[in-house]
Protein: Class II aldolase/adducin family protein
Organism: Actinomadura alba
Amino acid sequence: MLLGDERRELCEAGRQTAESGLVIGAAGNLSVRSGDLVAISPSGVELDRLTPEGIPVIDMEGRVVAAEGDVVAEGGGAPSSETPMHLAIYATTDAAAIVHTHSTYGAVVAATMAELPPIHYYTLLLGGVVRVADYAAYGTPELAGSVRTALAGRRAALMANHGGVAIGGTLAEAYENARLLEWLCGVYVRAKTIGEPRLLTEAELGELTERGFGPPALPPR
């Protein structure tokens, strides 16, 4: 099976993503890149019901790859509607995996803020203040471009009135970055219910950066 290990890995990550509440229904999508091929979750399928044989494998132009004896090449699931966004991210970063979520607190912040302020020093694990990409309809080149801009130098971004996206050097790392993004959003939203949160200053964040605190480097392609 073409990219069999990656497709099985996507199934497990899909179950984790659904069970942790980062998505509901058939919302959200995941992908893993291997060379010039990408295994991506299919459109319209709940992430906790993925099967390896139902996961499309595409090239960097978004075409489903034909491989003799491969189930997907014989009519498996159609690639996610967010394929343009995934491919735009892979084209401009060294990410090897992407997790796109519709998590509750992430959606709240994405609907109300221009960025997620540095409420906690773990913000640095995502590369710094998390930007909110300008709104555009899902699956469009406009959304892909907006997310690509918001992700510059970051491991995660929010998408206005939509959700969040996280990247990593592995699928496990991208998933953990997605969980961290939701945790940071939850801390900020809950803090706002008590009062005006104290935010970390650039100097305070810079001190930690100088001490080496931050995300691990993405492996080069």
Observations:
- Residues 171-194 form the longest helix (24 residues).
- Residues 15 and 49 are 7 Å apart (CA to CA).
